[in-house]
Amino acid sequence: MAVLVSAGVVTLGAPLVPVVQTRFDLSETASQWSYTITLLVGATLTPVLGRLADGRRRRPAAVCVCALVAVGCGLSAVADGYPVFLAGRAAQGLGVGLVALAIATARDHVPGSRGVRLLALLSVTTALGAGLSYPLTMVVAEQWGLAAAYGGAGVLTAGVAVALAIGMPRTVDASRRTGLDLPGAVLLTAGSLAVLLAISQGGVWGWTDPRTLGCAVAGVMALAVWVAVELHVRFPLVELRLVRQRDVLAAHLTAVAMGVSLYSTPVLVSRMAQAPSATGYGSGLGLLVVGLVMTPIAAGNLAGNRLALVLARRLGSRGALATGGAVAAAGPLVLVFVPGGALWTLLLAMALSAFGAGATFGTMTTMIVGAVEPAETGSATSVNILLRLVGGALGSAATGAALAAHPGPVAGFASASGLRFACLLCAAGCAVAVVVSLVLARRRTSPTPTD
User: Its domain of life (predicted)?
Assistant: First the structure.
């Protein structure tokens, strides 16, 4: 429940970007930051929370995260200006780390086949939370405004924080370390933030702008130092040697490639749904109908997640991972080859994209868990989440640049060709994931439930 609520809060920015743009009288680029900043914070701090999940401070870390997310929702609800609203959205990004916390807890306390199913399900809770929250968020935002949407999310998250404080089990192994690799945490956070900032803002600042190049160089240097530190410290923030295992490497590279489509396709569909028909692709739908268009996210991810277990048993990890990527690629391709923005095409695109993502991320988690020790579960899965968000930042930057480079006949909206090109970029990310799966993933079958 904690992960579902937090995931819904984190993803509030995607469907509400146009609403935020109107509310604060912003440009399209500036309004996109209401979504991007949440992903940046989530990406950079999730590995730290993942390591805490592997230690004895799991419960206080989870309670603290939920409390901060609730505070962030409150800030966004009462904000009179965009800077305060953004500060709230930044705090909400901490909720991304709850997925790693939940996966580590489940592995410790739910053994056997039930544990395998639960771990696979937890891997897609971000998408499930988004799918469940989108329709409700759209209704609330349309009827009562942004303040009600974020205020309600804050109340729910505060309730989850109380529930975790009362009922979350402690770490099973009392011998696990309690310390945190602070130098590694600072270096990874700073390096990831700088690189992601360069990626997300490169299209705005210019790819050769000193700010873009400075962030990129500083980030790469910080990450290089971080790698050197992690390989020599006794208790690293991230055990980098695990990447030498083929399944872990395949899962991490697939996460980057799939992240491009996972985070960008819903934004493109939302923009298509709300764009006027004069653009050549827009449906001109109201917020309530746009929310309904997003409902296949939850159902598709859940169905794909369940199918992943069957595919892994019959085709092995390689086949399950590649199948998920191929189905996910079909989602944005529907928007390319079926022009006009009809409601049924938007629903089909979301369903295929969500189904493929559910199968892929469910497989990735079971591959990682099967390859690492229990004490490394939170750390390894948090890195995978970080890499999904790196892919999301790459996708957001690439699709944003594609839209900006193809202005359409209606002011503030891209042309039909620009939108199709952005969709092709999402499909290309899924295609790369298929290739990585077939080349790197082991043939062996991943653990699956027998009952």
Answer: Bacteria
Determine the pLDDT at residue 451. 37
- As a whole number of angstroms, the distance between CA 284 and CA 418 comes to 18
Please give the mean pLDDT across all residues of the chain: 82
Torsion angle of the four alpha carbons 195, 393, 184, 64, in this order, in degrees rounded to the nearest 10? 140
Residue range(s) defining the domain that contains residue 41: 2-168+239-440
191 within 8 A of 390, measured Cβ to Cβ: no
Do both 42 and 159 map to the same domain? yes
pLDDT, tens only, 312-360: 888 888 888 999 999 999 999 999 988 767 889 999 999 999 999 888 9
The answer, as to whether pTM is greater than 0.85, is no
Instruction: Please report whether residue 176 resides in a domain.
Output: no
247-269 exposure pattern, b = at least 16 Cβ within 10 A, e = fewer: bbbbbbbbbbbbbbbbbbbbbbb
Q: Quote the CA–CA distance of 101 and 64 in Å, as a whole number.
A: 12
How many distinct structural domains can be found in the chain? Answer: 2
Predicted local distance difference test score (pLDDT) of residue 434 = 94
DSSP conformation class of 414:
B
Q: pLDDT value at position 446? A: 45
Examine the domain organization and report whether 164 and 214 are in the same domain: no
Task: Decide if pLDDT at 430 tops 50.
Answer: yes
Q: Which of 200, 217, 238 is the last residue of a domain?
A: 238
Residues 251 and 229 grouped into a single domain: no
Q: What is the mean pLDDT of residues 45-74?
A: 83
CA 207 vs CA 183, 202, 214, 264, 396: distances in Å: 30, 5, 11, 20, 15
Q: Whats the size of the chain, residue-wise?
A: 451
CA dist 236 and 181 (Å) reads 6
- Nearest C-alpha neighbor of 325 from the set 426, 420, 397: 426
Place of tokens 């409390």: 67
The CA distances from residue 204 to 24, 32, 55, 425, in Å, are 19, 11, 40, 18
Longest Cα–Cα distance of the chain, Å, equals 64
The token pair at 372 is 């690492």
Give the whole-angstrom CA distance, residue 31 versus residue 18: 7
How far is Cα of residue 168 from the mean position of the Cα atoms in its chain? Answer: 24
Q: What's the pLDDT at 72?
A: 92
| β partners of residue 414 | 407
